[in-house]
């Protein structure tokens, strides 16, 4: 069975902007040493959630525990290890070197500064000569990576990246991904990332959280299906899995071809007799800490999805890792983003 190592625990969180509720999360546990991808359409509350996780803002209502400690009692030196790269980061009107060194200077931690700046530049795929450039002599993708380097040099315990790939090309996005993996590997950094490049985020994160209109679409492992989509003769979108099996989404005529579908695991049924079921193989069965039910993960043509079942039902149906199962997905409950 998998064990989870909770870093954040959000309890009954509500956050308001101008009396409008923009975030409403009953319970959410976020694990340590993971890269958590936060998915959701514009205005769904991703940046708001990040502002709470970085303790830049305080939730209007509710409690956030960090390492089991109520955030209201967190010491400043613990908060200092939580670093955020906001959407549209701001560079100081100084050299690249001074931008990257800024945080360390503030902390009076300037030993081997030059070498540390150069190492960090390398981590984000920029040559050492970049350190002498002015902030104004950078392309969008380079500026984004300099802003990331300015956070990485702090070796944060938690790094929150709000849209780190916005306005960058595929090459820069790849370099950002490599820098993220390095931070996790070298310093055991826990990362939270949002991106509208869903494909990039899907390939970068270990865990997924999805928000829609300020609410969690699912508390736990979220099921996401990404483009490419095909169309059937009625114009509905069809997911064709690598194994050739197909899943038609009714009433998806007007959905865009780069849409993502979020599926609640409660709307996915295993071994239930139905005409449109598809074959899958169970890869793991475990019990999430925050859930009474067991989570059954299974794979269909290379795509991993999950469903939730009571333990007794798993035993009754004799479901085991490696078992083949018939999966029925209630596509009418799909949430499109
Ligand atoms: N300072 C603010 N004042 C008023 N409303 C705000 C403020 N910041 C955010 N909001 C509102 O809160 C909601 C959530 O915004 P948020 O920026 O968290 O969404 P998001 O998912 O990050 O969106 P995007 O993908 O566009 O960045 C939106 O309706 C937004 O208009």
Describe the structure.
It is a single chain. The chain is globular. It has 2 domains: 6-216, P-loop containing nucleotide triphosphate hydrolases (Rossmann fold), CATH 3.40.50; 223-330, RNA polymerase II/Efflux pump adaptor protein, barrel-sandwich hybrid domain (OB fold (Dihydrolipoamide Acetyltransferase, E2P)). The two termini are 32 Å apart. The strands form 5 sheets. Strands 6-7-8-3-9-10 form a 6-stranded mixed beta sheet, sandwiched between helices. A 5-stranded antiparallel beta sheet has the order 16-20-17-18-19. It has a 4-stranded antiparallel beta sheet with strand order 2-1-4-5, covered by helices on one side. Strand 13 and strand 14 (246-248) form a beta hairpin. The chain has helices at residues 46-53, 76-79, 96-106, 113-123, 140-152, 170-187, 198-204, 311-316; strands at residues 6-17, 20-31, 35-39, 61-66, 69-70, 82-85, 158-162, 190-194, 207-212, 215-216, 223-225, 230-231, 237-240, 246-248, 261-263, 268-270, 278-286, 294-300, 303-309, 324-329, 335-336. It is α+β, with helices and mostly antiparallel strands and 337 residues long. Residues 17-18, 22, 40, 42-48, 87 line the site of adenosine-5'-triphosphate (ATP).
Topology record:
Layout: E1 6-17, E2 20-31, E3 35-39, H1 46-53, E4 61-66, E5 69-70, H2 76-79, E6 82-85, H3 96-106, H4 113-123, H5 140-152, E7 158-162, H6 170-187, E8 190-194, H7 198-204, E9 207-212, E10 215-216, E11 223-225, E12 230-231, E13 237-240, E14 246-248, E15 261-263, E16 268-270, E17 278-286, E18 294-300, E19 303-309, H8 311-316, E20 324-329, E21 335-336
Parallel strand pairs: 3-8, 3-9, 6-7, 7-8
Antiparallel strand pairs: 1-2, 1-4, 4-5, 9-10, 11-15, 12-13, 13-14, 15-21, 16-20, 17-18, 17-20, 18-19
Helix pairs in contact: 3-4, 3-5, 4-5, 5-6
């Amino acid at each position: 069975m998998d064990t989870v190592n909770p870093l954040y625990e959000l309890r009954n969180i509500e956050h308001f902007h101008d009396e409008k509720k923009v975030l409403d999360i009953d319970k959410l546990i976020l694990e340590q040493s993971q890269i958590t991808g936060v998915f959701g359409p514009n205005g769904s509350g991703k940046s708001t959630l990040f502002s709470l996780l970085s303790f830049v803002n305080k939730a209007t209502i509710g409690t956030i525990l960090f390492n089991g400690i109520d955030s209201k009692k967190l010491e400043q030196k613990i908060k200092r290890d939580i670093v955020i790269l906001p959407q549209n980061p701001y560079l100081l009107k100084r050299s690249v070197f001074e931008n990257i060194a800024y945080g360390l200077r503030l902390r009076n931690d300037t030993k081997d500064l030059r070498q540390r700046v150069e190492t960090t530049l390398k981590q984000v795929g920029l040559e050492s000569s970049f350190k002498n450039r002015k902030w104004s002599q950078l392309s969008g993708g380079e500026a984004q990576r300099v802003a990331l380097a300015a956070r990485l040099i702090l070796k944060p315990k938690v790094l929150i990246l709000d849209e780190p790939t916005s306005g960058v090309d595929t090459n820069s996005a790849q370099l950002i991904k490599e820098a993220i993996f390095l931070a996790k590997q070298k310093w055991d950094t826990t990362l939270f990332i949002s991106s509208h490049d869903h494909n990039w985020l899907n390939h970068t994160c270990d865990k997924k959280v999805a928000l829609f209109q300020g609410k969690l679409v699912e508390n736990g492992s979220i099921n996401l299906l990404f483009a490419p989509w095909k169309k059937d003769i009625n114009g509905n979108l069809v997911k064709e899995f690598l194994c050739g099996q197909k899943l038609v989404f009714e009433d998806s005529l007007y959905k865009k071809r780069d849409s993502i579908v979020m599926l609640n695991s409660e709307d996915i049924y295993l071994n239930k007799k139905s005409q449109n079921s598809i074959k899958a193989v169970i890869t793991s069965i475990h019990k999430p800490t925050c859930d009474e039910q067991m989570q059954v993960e299974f794979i269909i043509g290379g795509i991993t999805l999950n469903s939730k079942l009571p333990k007794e039902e798993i035993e009754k149906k004799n479901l085991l890792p490696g078992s083949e199962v018939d999966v029925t997905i209630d596509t009418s409950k799909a949430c499109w983003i």
